[in-house]
Design a protein that fits this description.
3-stranded antiparallel β-sheet, 9 strands
Length: about 260
């Protein structure tokens, strides 16, 4: 990580008006053991790194907790906040989705319960509290492209997720070895990926030895092939798809039971 030369500190800090925050979360297994990390840089030159561990969690939950804890750290500071994160989930959730969820009684557009409702409510409370102290600018920073602040919070989060306790810095910017004010050009949020609708199975086919069978459910198919050396199995999306699969296996479709 690149350090900050003394003479460049004021120039770099001038890019941000107020408090600069980086947050990130990590999870092994998703769900599984997780960790979160944050950096808070105050206008007076004080830096504080934060982080923590959760035994059973998800990546999104750790991203949210990092954001919540960072905002709690500065909740009564009278200064605007620029919060940098690589989590489109956090940014879209708190700036777009949350209004609809609240109106619908914390239900999604499909009528399902909102995932991580308790964390969204905590985050909403911290954001509302800051209205009396300074606005929050949510800034998307693409992960793993060498942005020093983002790389450092990722490192903290990963270390905690592995059950280790990294040394967290607290002190003046002059002594901090992370070039957190080296920020990339503003980048808009990536377009959300379109939802891919799952195509219902026409059938499941399997071959064991030289005998092919057709199954109505995956459970039936799995029972036949699980643990059997040389077994083949596949989901067919249509009658034509089923026929093509069987032919590719060297099976005459009319021989399937």
């Amino acid at each position: 990580m690149g350090g900050i030369k003394d003479e460049s500190i004021e120039e770099q800090a001038a890019v941000i008006s107020g408090i600069l925050v980086f947050t990130d979360g990590a999870c092994s297994g998703n769900p599984g053991p997780g960790g979160w990390g944050a950096i808070v840089a105050r206008p007076d030159g004080r830096i504080r790194e934060l982080g923590g561990f959760a035994e059973q969690t998800t990546n999104n939950q750790m991203e949210m907790l990092a954001t919540i804890e960072a905002l709690r750290e500065v909740r009564d500071d009278d200064s605007p906040v620029t919060l940098c994160t690589d989590s489109t989930y956090v940014i879209r959730g708190i700036t777009q989705w949350i209004w609809g969820w609240q109106k619908k009684g914390w239900k999604t557009a499909e009528g399902k319960d909102v995932s991580n409702k308790d964390l969204w409510q905590e985050l909403a409370r911290e954001v509302m509290h800051r209205k009396n102290h300074g606005e929050i600018t949510w800034r998307y920073v693409r992960g793993h492209i060498g942005v020093a602040g983002n790389e450092r919070v990722d490192e903290i989060a990963v270390e905690f997720s592995k059950g280790r306790r990294p040394r967290l810095f607290a002190g003046p910017l002059l002594q901090y070895k992370v070039a957190i004010y080296d920020l990339p050009e503003f980048e808009a949020l990536p377009e959300p990926k379109p939802k891919v609708e799952k195509v219902a199975a026409y059938s499941y086919v399997s071959v064991l030895g030289s005998m092919a069978m057709r199954h109505a459910t995956w459970a039936d198919c799995e029972r036949r092939v699980k643990g059997k050396p040389g077994a083949k199995f596949k989901k067919a999306k249509s009658a034509d798809d089923e026929r093509a699969i069987l032919i590719s296996w060297g099976i005459n479709p009319s021989d399937v039971k």
